[in-house]
C-alpha cells in the first residue's frame, strides 16, 4: 500500500515555498503530533509562512501528517526505506530533506505514539505510610500496624488532551492483605522472568 | 461490690439475681451453656443458630427461655468488656466472683476465656475501622502487539484490578503499569512488609 496518494505527494511540494529548513522541520513535528482534528487550525497557522492559500495549506498539512504517521506506523528506520516511499519525479532536495528530518525524529515520535496509546488509567505515582493503631471502639488498647497506600492514577491521556485528570486513591492494607498481595506480585515477577528468558 | 475490671459503669441491678440463678445450675449444665456462649462469641454472625441452641438448652433443662435470655445477657457483659480491655483470665474470674458467681463456675468460665481469647481478639481487631480496605487484587499482563499508530509494538503491559471496600460497597479500580513501574511497586511493597514486620 502506498504511503500517500499521488495528489498528496504533489501537495508536499508546496514545502518548497517554506522560508527555511527549520520551518520545514517544525512543520513536520507539528503535523506528526497533531491529531487529525487539529490539522485544520494548524493549516491556518501555516498559511502565511508557506505563502499558500487555505486549501493548499490544508492539503499540505494533511499530507505531511499522513507521511510522518505512516513512517512511524511501519517502523521504518532506514533512509532507503523512507526514500523509496516518494515517487520518481519528486523534487530530489526536498525528498532528502524530508527523509533527514524524519530520521532525526523517528524514535522520539515512536515514543510519543507509545505514550499516547490507549490504555487503562495509568499509575503515575505511589506513596505509602505505616500506622500503628493503638485504640478503637472494639479494643481499647492495641498495637496493630497497618499500611496506607496512595496511588495516583491518571485517566487515559487521549481522552483528556492537555489536561490529564489525576485522581488519588488511598487504600488501607492489613499485614495479611499485604502478604497476599506480595505473593501475587512475586508470581507476576516470576512469570515475567520466564517470558524474558525465552 | 468492689471495682470491676471489665467495666467502669455501674452494673444493672438484675445481674446479681441472674448470677444467683446461674449458681443453681449443675456443673454439666453450666459447661453446656458456656459452650453455647463461646460458640456465639467466636462466630457473632450466627445469631439464629445461637438463639436455636439457647432454646434447646432451655427445653432440655426445663428452664423458661425468657429468664434464660436475661441470664445470658448478664453473662455476656463480662466477656464483651474483657475483650475491649484485654483482660487476663484471672481478672475475668475475679469479676465473675465479684458479681456473685460461685468460685467453681467463675474459674471454669475464666479457663474457657483463656482458651478462646486469641480468636476473640483477632475478631475484634478485624472489626476495627479500615479506610478503603483493599479486599482483593486481580492481575493480568501481556504484550501489546500493535496499535493504530504503531504496526509492531512488542511492549509489556501489566493491568491490576483492585477491589476496594468503600463504606459498605465494593468498588473496582483498574490500573495499568509499565514494567519499570511494576518493579518499583514491588520493591516499595517489600519495604512496607519489612516495616510492618518490625512493628508486629
Detailed description of the structure:
Chain B: It comes from Scytalopus superciliaris. Chain B: One of its GO terms (molecular function) is NF-kappaB binding. Chain B: Pfam families: COMM_domain, COMM_HN. The complex is a heterodimer of chains A (198) and B (200). Chain A folds into two domains: 111 residues, no CATH class; 76 residues, no CATH class. Chain A is built from eight helices and three strands. Chain A has a three-stranded antiparallel sheet with strand order 1-2-3. The model of chain A has no long low-confidence stretch (mean pLDDT 88). Chain B has two domains: 117 residues, no CATH class; 66 residues, Transcriptional Co-activator pc4, Chain A (Roll). Classes of the chains: A alpha+beta (198), B alpha+beta (200). Chains A and B meet through helix 4, helix 6, strand 1, strand 2 and strand 3 of A and helix 6, strand 1, strand 2, strand 3 and helix 7 of B.
Amino acid at each position: 500500500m502506498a504511503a500517500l496518494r499521488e495528489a498528496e505527494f504533489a501537495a508536499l511540494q508546496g514545502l518548497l515555498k517554506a522560508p527555511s529548513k527549520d520551518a520545514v522541520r517544525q512543520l513536520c513535528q507539528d503535523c506528526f503530533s497533531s491529531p487529525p482534528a487539529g490539522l485544520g487550525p494548524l493549516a491556518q497557522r501555516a498559511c502565511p509562512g508557506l505563502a499558500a492559500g487555505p486549501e493548499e495549506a490544508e492539503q499540505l498539512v494533511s499530507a505531511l501528517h499522513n507521511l510522518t504517521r505512516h513512517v512511524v506506523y511501519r517502523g521504518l528506520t532506514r533512509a532507503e526505506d523512507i526514500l523509496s516511499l516518494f515517487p520518481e519525479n519528486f523534487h530530489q532536495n526536498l525528498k532528502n530533506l524530508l527523509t533527514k528530518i524524519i530520521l532525526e525524529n523517528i524514535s522520539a515520535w515512536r515514543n510519543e505514539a507509545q505514550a499516547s496509546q490507549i490504555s487503562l488509567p495509568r499509575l503515575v505515582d505511589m506513596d505509602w505510610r505505616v500506622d500503628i493503631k493503638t485504640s478503637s471502639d472494639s479494643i481499647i488498647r492495641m498495637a496493630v500496624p497497618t499500611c496506607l497506600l496512595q496511588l495516583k492514577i491518571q485517566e487515559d491521556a487521549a481522552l483528556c488532551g492537555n489536561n490529564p485528570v489525576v485522581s488519588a486513591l488511598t487504600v488501607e492494607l492489613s499485614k495479611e492483605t499485604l502478604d497476599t498481595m506480595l505473593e501475587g506480585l512475586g508470581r507476576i515477577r516470576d512469570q515475567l522472568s520466564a517470558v524474558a528468558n525465552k | 461490690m468492689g471495682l470491676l475490671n471489665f467495666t467502669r459503669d455501674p452494673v444493672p441491678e438484675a445481674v446479681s439475681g441472674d448470677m444467683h440463678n446461674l449458681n443453681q445450675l449443675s456443673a454439666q449444665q453450666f459447661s453446656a451453656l458456656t459452650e453455647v456462649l463461646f460458640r456465639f462469641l467466636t462466630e457473632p454472625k450466627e445469631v439464629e443458630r445461637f438463639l436455636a441452641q439457647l432454646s434447646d438448652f432451655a427445653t432440655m433443662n426445663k428452664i423458661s427461655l425468657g429468664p434464660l435470655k436475661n441470664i445470658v445477657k448478664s453473662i455476656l457483659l463480662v466477656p464483651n468488656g474483657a475483650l475491649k480491655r484485654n483482660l487476663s483470665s484471672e481478672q475475668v474470674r475475679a469479676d465473675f466472683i465479684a458479681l456473685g458467681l460461685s468460685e467453681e463456675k467463675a474459674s471454669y468460665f475464666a479457663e474457657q476465656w483463656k482458651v478462646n481469647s486469641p480468636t476473640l481478639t483477632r475478631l475484634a481487631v478485624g472489626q476495627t475501622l479500615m479506610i478503603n480496605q483493599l479486599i482483593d487484587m486481580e492481575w493480568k499482563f501481556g504484550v501489546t502487539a500493535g496499535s493504530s499508530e504503531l504496526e509492531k509494538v512488542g511492549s509489556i503491559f501489566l493491568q491490576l484490578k483492585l477491589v476496594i471496600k468503600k463504606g459498605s460497597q465494593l468498588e473496582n479500580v483498574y490500573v495499568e503499569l509499565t514494567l519499570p513501574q511494576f518493579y518499583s511497586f514491588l520493591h516499595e511493597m517489600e519495604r512496607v512488609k519489612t516495616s510492618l514486620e518490625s512493628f508486629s
